[in-house]
Amino acid sequence: MPRIEPVREPNEDQRQALSKTLQAPDGTPVNVFATLAHQPQLMRRVNALGGYFMVHGSIPLRERELVILRVAGTCNSAYEEGQHRWIAGEKAGLSGAEIEAALDPGAPHSWSAEDLRLLMFVDELLATGAVSDATWASLQSWGDIARTELLVLIGFYQMLALVIKGIGVELDPSVARLLDPAPGD
Fold it and tell me: For residue 11, what is the DSSP state?
């Protein structure tokens, strides 16, 4: 049960803010934004930063989803895992095995050298709060701008996972079905 219930009957300010967020298949705002809508200004800024990565970011979709899944798995965020499994598979082209391995840092997988360097970057930052010079240099081909964006992406999804788990945001029904499909689904 969530500590803070999602806004289900928004006032005008909340309605305007929610109209610019991710919607569930039934057209309602997803639970994380419906919950953050209690503070519309904060929700707008969280949505703006998340939207930046999705629309204007320099990190390619496949790599972005690998990073998000790794953060979700490391932070044990079923909510983010559920939201991004579909994107990773259907939009980013990750295989089921890649999705599972991205979610579990200990899972064996034959990653490409570039994917392995990227995931090691994520793992090191989440484990230590920093990246070594060697890890930073391992993504030299990304350039400083993309590596900086990568740091913010990792931090954003870690922050979101902590907020979601701290509040107890419930899975959206469409996501819950993806994570625990009914027999025959």
Answer: -
On the 0-12 / 13-18 / 19+ scale of CB atoms within 10 A, 123 is: middle
Distance CA 64, CA 76 (A): 18
Cα–Cα separations (whole angstroms), residue 18 to 3, 53, 97 = 20, 18, 34
| Whether 121 contacts 150, CB under 8 Å | yes
- Show me where the domains of the chain are located: 12-54, 60-158
| Range of lowest pLDDT (32-46, 95-109, 167-181) | 167-181
Where does residue 184 fall: left (phi above 0), alpha (psi -120 to 50 degrees), or beta otherwise? left
Asked if 117 and 137 touch (Cβ cutoff 8 Å), the reply is no
**pLDDT reading at 112 higher than 60:** yes
Flag whether the pTM goes above 0.90: yes
Q: So what's the architecture of 60-158 in CATH?
A: Up-down Bundle (1.20)
